[in-house]
Design a protein that fits this description.
The complex is a heterodimer of chains A (254) and B (241). Chain A has 254 residues and is an alpha+beta fold. Chain A has two domains: 11-111, Immunoglobulin-like, CATH 2.60.40; 128-248, no CATH class. In chain A, 24% of the residues lie in helices and 26% in strands. A five-stranded mixed β-sheet of chain A has the order 1-8-7-4-5, with no helix packed on it. Chain A is globular and about 65 Å long. Chain B has 241 residues and is mostly helical. Chain B has 14 helices and four strands. In chain B, helix 2 crosses helix 7 (127-135), helix 9 (156-162) runs parallel beside helix 12 (201-214) and helix 11 (171-181) packs across helix 13 (222-228). The chains are: A alpha+beta (254), B mainly alpha (241). The interface between A and B is medium-sized, with 33 and 36 residues.
């Protein structure tokens, strides 16, 4: 992974401060609206707000006014996309200086939610989505944020992802992959930064009994050891062996 | 021939054919899959597709774009059946041959669209050029860096740019890539455009990654973007046409 240096100190916009609501419309193009809370980021009043929608090779940009005069009223039509499936959003705040156009703050990889969903603004730590994965049953994507993809050819793939056997066999590896990425010093994540998706995982696992705090200064070997300790503690705490045995030999009382 | 879309059964048989090509017992080209039946069903709009040859990925896209323009683009973009049928239809033209004339199909997403994966989607030999062309339909020539290769070849510029959603749809990024790596007279890649050294497409993507942290690349022209690139790219800017 190539290390990227944020020379300009660009701010990350918290997920709960940039929320996108999608409204699918039968037989018509999807529309969306945004809720932005950018008042506490210390951004210049004349900086421009832009929301970008993207999927594969399709992209649309929408101007939402400035920090001083945001124009987030009303629904915007996703004319280029047809349906609203699988669209991701990016919110950018851009300096007014036309010669430089510096990005001052950004939130990326935002999935639109239906109005009424998720009323407290929290997002699941591991969103599960259905996709065509060929003959793979599941796949983990770590960046820009961890997502578990389930093969949508699996009947009731959502249920399959919650099955005790699936959890017992798959989740330790999911956790391992995410934590390896999160402890990689080149990934740009900051454990102190509560806005980073991977940092959320560090905070999540540190709350599991038996997991020591992630050492601030660590060698690669120490990071690996910490990850394995964390995965082991997670499996113990979640009784994953018992869950699997309960599925494999239900008559055995563990 | 009237265009069809492969059914799941059709895609499974096409995949079996492609898999067999890497064994000692390759299956014959399954032309029967192209005909309507269990393996193929009609494309929603009546579209005649000719078995013609193309010199570049751009020519394929230019040929298909008017034929598919009226279709539901959202459905089309993610329909493996349509793109697989087209890839099979043009298979003998698209597929490289190795020693002894044996087909070398390469990875499956080149033939069967990986519709849900933006990191593999662009590798499809038909859908890739088509969608790049469509994304830059206002000025397709600016996307020459992504479309100038022969139909069965992608090249490193495509690999580096098209695998990133934010880059492949960005007019400035694509226009600057064309200015850097495509000879405007011959329409082919400049010498060294396939290297991994200073100023190469790989470095271009890495530098863009860094610039993207600072600048809103969407607000820029290709010309302005070229001025932000470090001196290692001078050799491509200065290479004679």
């Amino acid at each position: 992974m190539i290390k990227r240096i944020n020379y300009t100190g660009r701010s990350k916009i918290l997920r709960e401060d940039a929320r996108v609501f999608m409204t699918p419309r039968e037989g018509a193009r999807a529309v969306f609206r945004v809720e932005l809370k950018l008042g506490d980021y210390g951004l210049p009043p004349d900086a421009a707000i832009r929301v970008e929608a993207y999927r594969l090779t399709t992209w649309m940009g929408f101007d939402f006014g400035t920090i001083a005069m945001p124009d987030a009223l009303g629904d915007r039509e996703l004319a280029e996309f047809g349906d609203g499936e699988d669209i991701l959003f990016r919110v950018k705040v851009i300096s007014a200086d036309p010669a430089k156009r510096v990005v001052l703050a950004e939130a990326d990889g935002i999935r639109g939610s239906a109005p009424g969903d998720d009323p407290d603004g929290r997002e699941p730590i591991l969103p599960v989505v259905g996709e065509d994965l060929g003959h793979l049953v599941w796949e983990l994507v770590v960046e820009p944020r961890p997502i578990l993809k389930m093969n949508k050819s699996v009947p009731d793939w959502r249920g399959a992802a919650k099955h005790p056997a699936f959890i017992a066999l798959v989740f330790p590896q999911v956790l391992r992959q995410v934590l390896v990425a999160a402890t990689n010093p080149d990934d740009g994540s900051d454990p102190e930064d509560n806005r980073d998706a991977l940092s959320r995982w560090i905070r999540f696992i540190e709350r599991v009994p038996g997991v020591p705090p992630l050492p601030e200064r660590r060698t690669p070997d120490e990071a690996t050891e910490w990850v394995e300790t964390a995965v082991g503690a997670f499996c113990r705490h979640q009784k994953l062996l018992d869950r699997f045995v309960g599925f494999w030999h239900p008559e055995v009382n563990t | 021939m009237i265009m069809q879309r492969l059914t799941k059964t059709g895609i499974a048989r096409m995949t079996a054919f492609l898999d067999s090509l890497t064994t000692e017992s390759p299956l014959p080209y399954p032309s029967d899959l192209l005909e309507s039946g269990e393996c193929a069903e009609p494309f929603p709009q009546l579209t005649e597709i000719e078995d013609r040859s193309f010199r570049t990925r751009l020519e394929i896209a230019e040929y298909l774009y008017p034929k598919l323009e009226g279709a539901d683009q959202a459905a089309l973009q993610r329909d493996p059946g349509i793109w697989s049928w087209l890839a099979l239809f043009y298979f003998r033209q698209l597929c490289e041959k190795g020693h002894g004339g044996k087909y070398k199909p390469g990875a499956l997403p080149r033939w069967v669209l990986a519709a849900d994966s933006y990191t593999r989607y662009y590798r499809h030999l038909i859908a890739g050029p088509y969608q790049i062309y469509r994304a830059h339909r206002a000025d397709p020539k600016r996307a020459a860096a992504l479309l100038c290769n022969p139909p069965g070849k992608m090249g490193d510029v495509v690999e580096q740019i098209a695998s990133r959603q934010d880059l492949v749809t960005n007019p400035a990024v694509v226009e600057a890539a064309t200015a850097l790596y495509v000879d405007p007279v011959s329409g082919r890649y400049k010498r060294g455009a396939g290297s991994k050294l200073a100023g190469s497409p790989r470095r271009y993507a890495a530098v863009l990654d860094q610039l993207d942290l600072t600048y809103d690349l969407r607000s820029m022209s290709g010309e302005r973007l070229l001025t932000l690139l470090p001196t290692e790219f001078e050799r491509f800017r200065k290479l004679p046409a």
